[in-house]
Write a structure and sequence with these properties.
It is an enzyme of class 6 (ligase). The protein is of the alpha+beta class. The protein has 13 helices and 18 strands. A hairpin with a 4-residue loop joins strand 10 and strand 11. Guanosine-5'-diphosphate binds next to strand 2, strand 7 and strand 10.
């Protein structure tokens, strides 16, 4: 699981890594109040699980609390790489003298960790590595030996980081190992005008296999989309995507191929929703309500191949959903396999003007793509 920047920041702080003073805010008035407490001039940062927020306009300097209010209003609700911004972090601005990059990642093939360090921080490290590979140092770290003072000094030197960054290099290693993380990335790690080494950004990916050891981290706002949280609560396998065709199917393989077919019809899927094998009418109704509630969705494609899940149960779920939510978006349904004829008859009997049936997956995708256009 990826942590939000503000969660990573808290972990860093706990391990003695310097971070700017900051608060999280869910609304513009809260951002203004936070700015007042932080001394007025602040940086307002979108909290989404995606990098490149700066480039997308999700990291902005505000000169005073009123500017922080206005900036937060602009950033909240913004879409960054398909992630809607629901929170901002309001931070004390840092006077940057120089930006560096430091990361630890798991090198699965080699069975060890890799420290990645560079004096070209602030930019996307993949770009730097592609353009000037010699500017990015990759130092293997044996998990049993870990990062000692000597190793930290070696990593800093190899990456062109100042020697005084070594203690931070070591502390970030502790974050990785003691918090069961697979990735810890600080970009930029900066040296400030007054010589301090500060983590100005933070990305931490926790190892889900260790979830049982970190119930708190997982309980605290795990989903960056409220619909993902709702789906998790309903036991649905849902991922928000950035297109406009809502996709619902049974079985991850079928849903993935449905995404491909939608894409081949020139449309972009708005989500991945697998209602699973053996789904009941209730699960179908819950899934449909979830997808219809997404403002990005313009049409919904339900693609079910009845196996353990019978198509008549799916059709009943759709009918039940039609009774509880007012359908304002067209729904294209393709039912095949177990009890398909009964399922189709149930939908035909309901005769809703926004519900269209299609015989094939391709035909259904073409229809849904057309309706979303
Ligand atoms: P990202 O774009 O998602 O990686 O977000 P970052 O947190 O890395 O912020 C993007 C860029 O904004 C950084 O590389 C910095 O150059 C700049 N930035 C962020 N916070 C501050 C700050 O406190 N002071 C200054 N001067 N620049 C900042
Ligand atoms: Mn960054």
């Amino acid at each position: 699981m990826d942590l939000f920047e503000h969660q990573a920041r808290q972990l860093f702080e706990h391990y003695g890594v310097l971070v700017p003073r900051a608060e999280v805010a869910d609304s513009a008035p809260e951002a203004r109040a936070a700015a007042e407490r932080l001394g007025g001039r602040v940086v307002v940062k979108a909290q989404v699980r995606a990098g490149g927020r700066g480039k997308a306009g999700g990291v902005r300097l505000a000169a005073d609390p009123v500017a922080a209010y206005l900036t937060a209003r602009q950033i909240l609700g913004m879409d960054i790489k398909g992630h809607t911004v629901h929170r901002v972090m309001v931070a004390e601005p840092v006077e940057i003298e120089r930006e560096f990059y430091l990361g630890y990642a798991l090198d699965r093939a080699a069975g060890r960790f890799l420290a990645i360090a560079s004096a070209e921080g602030g930019m996307e490290i993949e770009e730097v590595a592609a353009r000037r590979p010699e500017a990015v140092a990759r130092i293997p770290v044996d998990p049993d030996e870990g990062v000692t003072d000597a190793k930290a000094a070696e990593i800093a030197a190899a990456g062109g980081l100042p020697a005084e960054a070594a203690p931070t290099v070591r502390r970030l290693w502790r974050v990785l190992t003691e918090q069961d993380a697979l990735l810890v990335e600080v970009n930029p790690l900066v040296r400030t005008r007054d010589g301090a080494i500060v983590a100005l950004d933070g990305k931490v990916t926790l190892d889900d296999n260790a979830r049982f050891r970190r119930p708190r981290a997982y309980a605290a706002d795990t989903a960056d989309d409220p619909r993902e949280a709702e789906a998790a609560a309903k036991g649905l396998n849902y991922v928000k995507l950035d297109g406009h065709v809502g996709v619902i199917g049974n079985g991850a393989g079928l849903v993935m191929s449905t995404l491909d077919v939608v894409a081949s019809r020139g449309a972009r899927p708005a989500d991945f929703l697998d209602i699973g094998g053996g789904a009941s009418a209730e699960v179908m109704a819950g899934g449909l309500a979830l997808v219809l509630g997404d403002p990005d969705v313009r049409s919904v494609l339900v693609n079910v191949f009845g196996g353990i899940t019978a198509c008549d149960a799916v059709a009943e779920g759709i009918v039940r959903a039609l009774d509880t939510v007012t359908l304002t978006k067209p729904l294209v349904v393709r039912l095949d396999g177990n009890s398909a004829a009964r399922g189709r008859a149930i939908l035909a009997a309901r005769a809703h003007r926004l519900v269209h049936q299609a015989d094939t997956m391709d035909g259904a995708a073409a229809r849904a793509a057309h309706l979303a256009a």
